[in-house]
Amino acid sequence: MGRIYNFSAGPAMLPEEVLKEAADEMLDYRGSGMSVMEMSHRSKIYEGIIQEAEKDLRELMNIPDNYKVLFLQGGASQQFAAVPMNLMKNKVADYIITGQWAKKAYQEASIYGKANAIASSADKTFSYIPDCSDLPISEDADYVYICENNTIYGTKFKTLPNTKGKTLVADVSSCFLSEPVDVTKYGVLFGGVQKNIGPAGVVIVIIREDLITEDTLPGTPTMLKYKIHADSASLYNTPPAYGIYICGKVFKWIKSMGGLEAMKKKNEIKAKLLYDYLDESKLFKGTVVKEDRSLMNVPFITGSEELDAKFVKEAKAAGLENLKGHRTVGGMRASIYNAMPYEGVQALVDFMKKFEAENL
Ligand SMILES: *Cc1c(COP(=O)(O)O)cnc(C)c1O
Most CB atoms within 10 A, among 15, 168, 192, 194? Predict the structure, then answer.
């Protein structure tokens, strides 16, 4: 059995080189006589692994010294609570609703304070990013929140919102390390790694130091306090140790590919191949306005639910898996993260052409 092309939105494909290296080290990590899974997270050898992972991530993203990098658990969803609990000093925050993940974050924040939905693209099934150049930002907002790449709907903020001086918080789960970012534009960036970096179970939080304070909302659990994790370098309790080790390998893989500029170029070439075909196809059609298209998640439809289902089934038989759209939107979605090779997208487009010829 060979490997398939896996278009899953997450957990998703990982680079084959990384999986092979991890397999080689499975029983005996570099002469330790142990798997990384079996190591104390307090050991010197594991300290080396987590510190090197952080160093490589800092280098890749050019993270300034006044930002902390935290490797945590609880997924991106837990950050939906951690962000307001740590940042809502005035108990006010502004949310831009561009899809389900932004909406969930907004609903979670509403438990802890006044969350304002200051913009939304719900009127057109989240198929575009609203104009965020002059929003009614609340004067006392503690932060402005976005979901930068909308995994389900396939949109991406190409320019960050004008926050009028307020702290920007972004969920970057599905665009993490897909292209260069200017970290200084954000107060907090976070993402579950299972979309574009590593195995489920790790969430990475990059946070500016002045936002890390003792002054959290009353009742904030210890485990949700950024200060606790920052002060102990992500080793307050047992971290998701094996997952962090795999993330570290992916960081090295991206460095070996030429870093984030090179990743972006590759991702643009892959996405263009698919979008160009969608634009010329008589059967398939993309669902997102062109200027807001994501490089990572590409939703498309035929217009017939029956044909959609037939396509997903036949694609699977051809080794192209997990193309079914999110259960809430239907249709298809191809997630083409960093680890998806160009050949995978080529195979998908070839298959779509064949399917179109047979079914039009
Ligand atoms: C998948 C996803 C989430 C949820 O992540 P979990 O780690 O499962 O909590 C949140 N935000 C975005 C943008 C996602 O793609």
Answer: 192
- Catalytic, 140? Answer no
Ligand 1 atom nearest to 78, measured from its CA: 9
Of 108, 262, 247, which Cα lies nearest the Cα of 191? 247
Instruction: Sort strands 285-286 and 203-208 into parallel, antiparallel or unpaired.
Output: unpaired
Look at residue 164 in the predicted model and tell me its pLDDT.
98
DSSP string for residues in 15-37: -HHHHHHHHHTSSSSTTSSS-GG
Spatial distance between the Cα atoms of 98 and 79, rounded to a whole number of angstroms: 17
User: For residue 42, what are its two tokens?
Assistant: 């307090």
Which domains, ranges and CATH numbers included, belong to the chain? 17-256 (3.40.640.10), 258-359 (3.90.1150.10)
- Backbone angles phi and psi of 193, in degrees to 5: -85, -5
Q: Check if the beta carbon of residue 220 is closer than 8 Å to that of residue 95.
A: no
The verdict on the CB of residue 77 being under 6 Å from ligand 1 is: yes
The label of the residue with tokens 């945590």 reads 72
Atom of ligand 1 nearest to the CA of 150: 13
- Report which secondary-structure segment, H or E, holds 115: strand 114-120
Quick one: CA dihedral 285, 287, 289, 293, positive or negative?
negative
d(CA 8, CA 3): 14
Tens digits of residue pLDDT in 231-270: 999 999 999 999 999 999 999 999 999 999 999 999 999 9
β-pairing, 297-301 vs 332-335, is: antiparallel
Distance between CA atoms of residues 354 and 272, nearest Å: 19
Q: What is residue 262's three-state secondary structure?
A: helix
Per-residue pLDDT tens over the stretch 162-209: 999 999 999 999 999 999 999 999 999 999 999 999 999 999 999 999
Q: Confidence band (pLDDT; 50, 70, 90) for 1?
A: low
